[in-house]
Amino acid sequence: MSKIAAQFKDKKALITYISGGDPSLEMTEKLIYRLQEEGVDIIEIGIPFSDPLADGPVIQEASQRALKNGCTLKKLIEMLTDIKDKVKVPIVLMGYYNSVLNYGEKEFVEAIKKAGVSGVIIPDLPVDEKADLAYYLKEAALDQILLVTPNTSDERLKEISNSSSGFLYCVALLGTTGDARGPYPQLESYLKRVRKTAGDIPLGLGFGIDGPEKVKKFIDYPDGVIIGSALIKAITAGETETEKLENAGEFVRNIKKVLANYK
Ligand SMILES: O=P(O)(O)OC[C@@H](O)[C@@H](O)c1c[nH]c2ccccc12
Fold first, then answer.
1. From ligand 1's centre to the CA of 82, what distance in Å?
2. Which of 108, 95, 105, 116 is nearest to 3 (CA)?
3. Is the beta carbon of 228 within 6 A of some atom in ligand 1?
4. CA of residue 53 to ligand 1 center, whole Å
5. Over the stretch 43-99, which tens digit does the pLDDT of each residue have?
6. Mutation test residue for ligand 1: of 19, 45, 207, the one with most atoms within 8 Å of CB
7. Looking at the 3D structure of the chain, how many domains does it have?
8. What residues are paired with 56 via a beta bridge?
9. CA triplet 221, 182, 169: central angle to 5 degrees?
10. 209 in contact with ligand 1, CB cutoff 6 A
């Protein structure tokens, strides 16, 4: 079992997303330590990108702040490599395919492996693309987490879940990240359909889950939740570094309180 999949064992997992380099790489480093201390199960880190097409305004702005402050994929990987020994929680890199292509697919996989990263999410790389990247990731024993949506047909679901490793990312709505309308009204039947088709792989639910209330409402169906925009909002609301870290801690504690009641 991969280090990522193991995080779903006997509990509902909490996966938090932060944008790498927002507002600085030093802050990303401190946030990783804080999220780890608060007991987050997996940390997803976004590679800053100018056209993040799956992202709503909160993450778009976070990505812009990171780019403005000079964060690049290379610098992000260097930072992760430097702190590798202090990070026990599995790290997942989320980024658009273009960033990986620019870096070089083979070089990217080698570098993130060295940085201790456990898996990747590349939302704009379809499963049938058969990219070299998928091959290199497998060789390096890194997870490639794939996404399904309420619109995904049963046939595709089967194909995607067979190729996904670590967990299967169930997008909770038809829209972008941070969409407060989520999750999808027929979430229960959607996730039951996924469960039936996907077999044993853990199911993570993300997009539009903005706090403890929504977690409570929907946690029966998936094996874990992914929260990004709402956490970034809480962090950004802090004025000083200390306040930002404190807000992140408080946000996570409130979600963990809900999750503690479930298995
Ligand atoms: O921000 P939200 O609505 O809480 O959704 C999680 C999300 O942020 C994170 O998993 C993510 C950020 N950017 C993405 C792009 C594609 C898929 C997933 C993501």
1. 26
2. 116
3. yes
4. 11
5. 999 999 999 989 999 999 999 999 999 999 999 999 999 999 999 999 999 999 999
6. 207
7. 1
8. none
9. 50
10. yes
CATH code of residue 39: 3.20.20.70
DSSP 8-state class, residue 233: H
For the chain, give the mean pLDDT.
Answer: 96
Secondary-structure breakdown of the chain: helix, strand, coil percentages, each rounded to the nearest 5: 50, 15, 40
User: Is 206 a pocket residue for ligand 1 (Cβ < 6 Å)?
Assistant: yes
Kindly give the distance from the C-alpha atom of residue 102 to the centroid of ligand 1, in angstroms, as a whole number: 22
Angle of the 73-83 helix axis to the 25-37 helix axis, nearest 10: 40
pTM exceeding 0.90: yes
Q: Which two tokens stand for residue 11?
A: 């509990």
Task: Check if the interface score ipTM surpasses 0.95.
Answer: yes
Range of the domain at 251: 5-259
Please state the atom number of ligand 1 nearest to the C-alpha of residue 208. 3
Beginning with the edge strand found earlier in the chain, give each strand of the sheet holding 168-171 in spatial order: 143-144, 119-121, 91-94, 42-46, 13-19, 224-227, 203-206, 168-171, 147-148
- pLDDT-derived band at 227 (thresholds 50, 70, 90) equals very high
